[in-house]
Amino acid sequence: MATLPPEPILPHGPAPDAAAPEVLAEALVALHGQAAALALLARLAPEPVEIGGELGMVIVRAAPWQRALVAQTAADCAAMMESGLAALGTLTRRGQDTSAPALVLWREFHAARAAMVSVLKAPATEPA
Predict the structure, then answer these.
(1) Are 34 and 78 in contact (CB under 8 A)?
(2) Mean of the per-residue pLDDT values for the chain?
(3) Taken in order 54, 2, 68, 124, is the CA torsion positive or negative?
(4) Number of independent structural domains in the chain
(5) Dist. CA 36–CA 46, nearest whole Å
(6) pLDDT confidence of residue 128
(7) Does 126 fall in a domain?
């Protein structure tokens, strides 16, 4: 997590389209689709995901800077998951066990997801 306040990290001006609540929710659903594939490779049960209800309301109530930060983190996680799943696919095609490296990638995803949720649930005040 960055130690700087959000204003020097995020671009100024209107929030990008990726931070719109409905676009952000779609990105999180896609990210959790990748996580479900990863869970199978790690020999974990996939988690049910519903980006709606309480989390959907949290996304809508979040400040634009919070949604922008989560959108960027979700994009970074998607890139990490895409390359990680490709590497795990190579291991699978070679007949090697993917459970250990998949579990490591799962833990990275889990930590990033927890950080995104904590950013969204933080008080939605505008940065000074």
Answers:
(1) yes
(2) 83
(3) positive
(4) 1
(5) 5
(6) 47
(7) no
- Are the CB atoms for 82 and 34 separated by under 8 Å? yes
pLDDT (average), residues 47-66:
79
> pTM for the full model?
0.76
Rounded to an integer, what distance in angstroms lies between the CA atom of residue 60 and that of residue 69? 14
Per the CB < 8 A criterion, the answer to whether 101 and 39 are in contact is no
> Is 28 inside any structural domain?
yes
For residue 52, the 8-state DSSP code is: S
For residue 47, what are its two tokens? 């988690």
Enumerate the H helices of 42-98 as residue ranges: 53-61, 64-93
- Read off the DSSP letter of residue 124: -
Closest C-alpha to 61, from 10, 15, 124:
124
Contacts of residue 80, defined as CB under 8 A and 6 or more positions apart, other chains included, come to: 105, 108, 109, 112
pLDDT for 86-105, tens place per residue?
A: 999 999 999 999 999 999 99
**Helices 64-93, 99-121: inter-axial angle, 10-degree rounding:** 170
Structural domain containing residue 29: 18-121
